[in-house]
Structures are given as structure tokens and as C-alpha cells.
Design goal:
It is a single chain. By secondary structure, this protein is of the alpha/beta class. The protein has two domains: 9-120 and 297-317, no CATH class; 155-276, no CATH class. The chain has helices at 13-22, 60-73, 123-129, 155-165, 194-205, 224-235, 268-276, 309-317, and strands at residues 9-10, 34-37, 44-45, 81-84, 105-108, 137-140, 149-152, 167-169, 180-182, 190-192, 210-213, 218-222. The strands form four sheets. Strands 1-2-4-5 form a four-stranded parallel β-sheet. Strands 3-7-6 form a three-stranded antiparallel β-sheet, with no helix packed on it. The radius of gyration is 23 Å and the shape is globular. The two termini are 41 Å apart.
């Protein structure tokens, strides 16, 4: 109605094909471009599917080529594809530019603009980016959205990893291999395997005394302080997502089945607000692409140099 162009973000030709058939074909004249977000390299949330291995990154070229072929079948051969995720130096993508197989191509930068003078992220966050090393960004699935996402391995993220590792399956009655009774000091009774009972008692002895149920019929073990924080954050859910795996909130119960709250996740609104307003970088979620370690290796950022947006743009257009 308003003649505004739209720019869908997809991570595969299959995803675009589904969206095109569902709705986009009705508004083809307003399709400004299609953003291909590399699900293994881009920062933030991404479109990695359940059929794809998060630990086995795929070459983006065949995936973008397949996307272009799908778009050509729909008569969209001249609509640009914007490549996002893993882009640092344009000279590394020279064979993609003016490539007849790929057609019109553009590139999107998400991580590099974080480290500019105009960037609104706090100084401590910028300083952290300058010190990252290879492997310091983790692709994980703790987000309450249910999607995979990539973020810096801060203390916050490491705690979530450790929490999920302190996890065992349980039954409410003795059945199968779950015949060893386990309690956490409350009136609740769990039946687990003998080996898991031994692991759980070790965790409890280390201070992770509270067993919290997950929607997958497992228990995760946390400290009393962590349990209190998790429950408070779940109670104070403000409904920022249409479906939240952390709190169990569902905007429209008639369209989606409510889930049990999941203590393996976190309140994303709380942590993003906190880090954006000067909260501890180590104790919050800090999204970044997997190339963020290159801040420490790129001579452009030597001696902690932070460019203006103009300087960054000029540098990018030079090929670096």
C-alpha cells in the first residue's frame, strides 16, 4: 500500500523458495534485495536449520549460487543478493563480484561497524572486541527464541554452557534404568540412573544444590542464587517475544502450544538492555560475528585504533 521495498533475510535457497511461494510472489515488485545470512559465520540470531550441523560450516558460494538459481526460476535474476556474515575484506570476495553465476551481489557488514567512534555500544564492549582470539565467538542455542545465535564467549555464555552440561534425564517413577532415587532437599523425588545419581551428588557437593526441571524431562543443577535469579526473571517476563522458551510465555495460546519454562535459557530483554546501557560485558550476552577475532589481527586497528564510520567506509572500499 505504501510502496515500501522489503529485504528478507534467509540462510538457504530452500528458505527463500518457501517464503516466495507463501507470500512474496504477491509483492515481487517491492522486493528490494534478498539478504543471504551465513548461519555459521554471522553474528546474532541466524537461520541454521535442524538438518544442518552447527559444527560443520559449509562453503557459502554453492549456497548463494543455489539461492540465485532459485531466484532466477522466479524471474528475479536481477534482484541483488546481499551477503552477510563472514565479510571482512572485500578483496577476499573479488571472485564474487561481477560473477555471472551469482548476478548482482552486495555485502553487508555487521560486526565491523560495532567498533567505530559513532557506535553506541559501551567502551568496555569495544575494548573486548579488540582482544578477541579465534574461537572466542560461540554458535549456540540457548536463546529464548529457539534459534541458533552467535555471541562472544563471555562469562555469561560460559555459565549457560556449564549449566547445560550439569544435566541428567529423570523419571517421576522408577522405570527402566531410572531406578535410583534422587532428592535435592525438597519434597520432590526423581528417579535417575545410578551413574547420573553419582554425578548429581558431585554437583550438589560443589554448591549446585538445586535441581530445576526442563521441558525435555531433564534436570539441570544450579546454585540457590542462580535458581532465585532464574525464577525471578521468569516471573518478571514482559512478553517481548511472541514465544519465549525461557519463561514459557506465549502471545497467542490459540496459535501455539505453551511450553514449560526452560532454565537452560535466559531473559534476552534483560541482558541486552543491561549490556547496551553499560552493564558488565562479561556478565551479559554480546553478539558478534565469527570474524570478530580479526580486530586483533587487522593492522587497521593497531594500537587500539577505533575509526569513525567514514574512515571505516573508506577502508572497506579500498578492499580492506
Amino acid at each position: 500500500r505504501h510502496g515500501v521495498h522489503y529485504y528478507p533475510i534467509v540462510s538457504s535457497a530452500r528458505a527463500f523458495r518457501a517464503l516466495w511461494k507463501r507470500a512474496y510472489h504477491r509483492f515481487s515488485e517491492y522486493l528490494g534485495a534478498v539478504v543471504y545470512e551465513d548461519p555459521w559465520r554471522a553474528g546474532g540470531h541466524n537461520g541454521l536449520s535442524n538438518a544442518e550441523d552447527p559444527n560443520a560450516p559449509q562453503d557459502p558460494y554453492p549456497r548463494v549460487k543455489a539461492l540465485r538459481e532459485t531466484m532466477r526460476e522466479a524471474g528475479l535474476g536481477e534482484v541483488p543478493i546481499v551477503v552477510a556474515g563472514g565479510v571482512w575484506w572485500l578483496r577476499e570476495w573479488q571472485d564474487w563480484i561481477d560473477n555471472p553465476e551469482l548476478g548482482p551481489i552486495a555485502f553487508q557488514f555487521g560486526t565491523r561497524p560495532l567498533l567505530t567512534k559513532e557506535s553506541p555500544i559501551p567502551k568496555a564492549w569495544k575494548e573486548r572486541l579488540l582482544k578477541l582470539k579465534p574461537g572466542d565467538v560461540l554458535l549456540h542455542r540457548f536463546s529464548p527464541t529457539g534459534f541458533y545465535s552467535s555471541a562472544v564467549k563471555t562469562r555469561f555464555l560460559k555459565r549457560l554452557v556449564a549449566r547445560s552440561e550439569r544435566q541428567i534425564a529423570y523419571s517421576t517413577t522408577a522405570a527402566g534404568e531410572h531406578r535410583t532415587l534422587l532428592t535435592d532437599g525438597s519434597k520432590r523425588r526423581f528417579f535417575v540412573t545410578e551413574a547420573d545419581a553419582a554425578r548429581a551428588r558431585t554437583w550438589m557437593g560443589e554448591g549446585f544444590e538445586i535441581a530445576m526441571k526442563t521441558p525435555n524431562n531433564t534436570l539441570v543443577f544450579v546454585t540457590p542464587q542462580e535458581a532465585e535469579t532464574i525464577r525471578r526473571d521468569q516471573r518478571e517476563c514482559m512478553g517481548c517475544l511472541s514465544m519465549c522458551q525461557f519463561s514459557g510465555w506465549v502471545e497467542d495460546p490459540s496459535r501455539a502450544s505453551p511450553r514449560k519454562a526452560d532454565p537452560r535459557s535466559f531473559c534476552i530483554q534483560k541482558t541486552l538492555q543491561d549490556i547496551a546501557h553499560g552493564g558488565s560485558v562479561e556478565d551479559n550476552l554480546a553478539f558478534a560475528g565469527h570474524n570478530a577475532y580479526r580486530f586483533a589481527e587487522d593492522p587497521f586497528y593497531s594500537n587500539g585504533f577505533i575509526p569513525t564510520v567514514r574512515q571505516l567506509f573508506e577502508r572497506i572500499m579500498s578492499g580492506d
